[in-house]
Design goal:
With about 425 residues, this protein is an alpha/beta fold. It is about 30% helix and about 20% strand. It has 3 domains: about 5-100 and about 195-260, Adenylosuccinate Synthetase, subunit A, domain 1 (Adenylosuccinate Synthetase, Chain A, domain 1), CATH 3.40.440; about 105-190, Adenylosuccinate Synthetase, subunit A, domain 2, CATH 1.10.300.10; about 260-420, Adenylosuccinate Synthetase, Chain A, domain 3, CATH 3.90.170.10. The longest helix is centred in the middle third of the chain and has 21 residues, at about 150-170. Bound molecules: guanosine-5'-diphosphate (GDP), 6-O-phosphoryl inosine monophosphate (IMO) and magnesium ion (MG).
Length: about 425
């Protein structure tokens, strides 16, 4: 059985923890989109590890980790991350990287900062060069992982791209980057990565044909999807279901079940509309309790109540089978919990439960909420669903009723063991 696990909100739903928990028994764990803008937190033997590029199955013995063609890869970041994981005693001879994965170059990181000035709004990207690298893929200019394996070919391709962008950098008065300043570092990384670079589409189809089980790991979240998210406040890839197929080379027949991850509330990093956002003391409390600071950039995350209108949209467009509800424990101390069930248009007063991702529509969406009594009980140690406080069960039941899909798993802490199957 192959399973897709993807984030249903604006990222950081707890995908790292969920994948680490679910990976047992899978033969392969595959990243299909995004890059090191992702920050997936896992506690491995009580040690915190944040993975940016490596699939979150690497701590599960016997699984092959795959970085698909849809992922944009900074080879230096990848080599560093491999070293970090190896320092924990995990040996990574079980990693395959697509030879078609587009490379992130230093020039892309530079452009990520410059391009913020070229938009009609600021997005607040992770500044990792993700957007510019995907732009080059669409522009047929990208340098691919396979190009890195031939020194002369790599130099020629990078030089053309680098010279082209230096002209733009000059225009903005920025500092130019010489290819020579990073060439050797990239070629060194190529030596380390060479044994892992392969045709992952062929590999995945062969393994799939042999009946091996695959766990697909989404990065970011549905509302950050370039096509279906809150554009332009989105990332540059497709975390939604379609990204799996374009980002791996597997067909829809390889997809058997889809679990969506959602926090019991909502967070967002960076700019963009957020109808259920909280401010003031309540926001401070929720941020502190949930430790809501970016795993990649350390930025404080914006926080708010669970937005069921947005959640239902995310579930619908991806055909989600069940929900993995995380961070329920973060709500333990609240006297009252709220969830957004509709939006009222600020100008017309009209109410709707249809999520329109167009940012102007969302900016006008005033949240209409439902209130729930808090359970004010520590849930962190609960092992069995029957021991979950009644008020929390009622909150979960309402989520199921509203969205029309079951909550299959509830997470009440950062550790693998703090996970409850219903
Ligand atoms: P990801 O990007 O979706 O993998 O999520 P992040 O790792 O960026 O952020 C999720 C944060 O919540 C991490 O610090 C996790 O360790 C933490 N976390 C995950 N599940 C739970 C949970 O059920 N309860 C609590 N308190 N923390 C959790
Ligand atoms: P994980 O996988 C949360 C956000 C950035 C910014 C927007 C565009 O850990 O859930 P980008 O650098 O991708 O061009 O930034 O997307 N963003 C994330 N927010 N979690 C992530 O990944 C994110 N990856 C990108 O903050 O608003
Ligand atoms: Mg994250």
């Amino acid at each position: 059985m192959n399973l897709l696990v993807l984030g249903l909100q604006w990222g950081d739903e707890g995908k790292g923890k969920a994948i680490d928990y679910l990976a047992e028994g899978f033969d392969l764990v595959v990243r299909y989109q995004g890059g090191h803008n992702a920050g997936h937190t896992i506690y491995y033997q009580d040690q915190k590890m944040v993975l940016h590029l490596l699939p979150s199955g690497i701590f599960t013995p016997g699984t092959l980790s795959v970085i698909g063609n849809g992922v944009v890869v900074n080879p230096l970041q990848l080599v560093n991350e491999i070293k970090e994981v190896e320092a924990l005693g995990i040996h990574l001879d079980n990693l395959a990287i697509s030879h078609l994965a587009p490379l992130i170059l230093p020039i892309h990181q530079h452009l990520d900062i410059i391009f913020e000035q070229s938009r009609y709004v600021k997005i607040g990207t992770t500044r990792r060069g993700i957007g510019p690298a995907y732009e080059d893929l669409a522009g047929r200019r990208a340098v691919l992982m396979a190009d890195l394996l031939d020194k002369d070919r790599f130099y020629q391709r990078v030089k053309i791209l680098n010279d082209y962008y230096n002209k733009i950098i000059r225009l903005y008065g920025g500092e130019e980057i010489a290819v020579e300043s990073y060439l050797d570092q990239y070629l060194e990384a190529a030596v380390a990565l060479r044994p892992m670079i392969t045709n992952t589409s062929e590999l995945l189809n062969r393994y799939s044909g042999d009946g091996k089980s695959i766990l697909f790991e989404g990065a970011q979240g549905v509302l950050l999807d370039i096509n279906h998210g809150t554009y332009p406040f989105v990332t540059s890839s497709n975390p939604t279901i379609g990204g799996v197929f374009t980002g791996t080379g597997l067909s829809h027949k390889a997809m058997h079940k889809i679990i969506g991850i959602s926090k019991a509330y909502t967070t967002r990093v960076g700019e963009g509309p957020f109808p259920s956002e909280l401010s003031g003391d309540e926001a401070e409390f929720l941020r502190a309790k949930g430790n809501e600071y970016g795993a990649t950039t350390g930025r404080p995350r914006r926080v708010g109540w669970l937005d069921l209108v947005a959640l239902k949209y995310a579930i619908t467009i991806n055909g989600i089978d069940s929900i993995f509800l995380t961070k329920l424990d973060v709500l333990d101390e609240f006297e009252e919990i709220k969830a957004v069930t509709a939006y009222r248009n600020c100008d017309t007063g009209e109410e709707t439960s249809i999520f329109d991702p167009y940012c102007v529509a969302l900016e006008q969406a005033h949240p209409v909420g439902k209130s729930f009594p808090g359970w004010q009980t520590d849930t962190g140690g609960i092992q069995d669903f029957k021991d979950i406080p009644l008020a929390a069960k009622e909150y979960i039941a309402f989520i199921e009723e509203y969205t029309g899909v079951p909550v299959e798993i509830v997470s009440v802490g950062t550790g693998r063991k703090q996970t409850i199957r219903k």
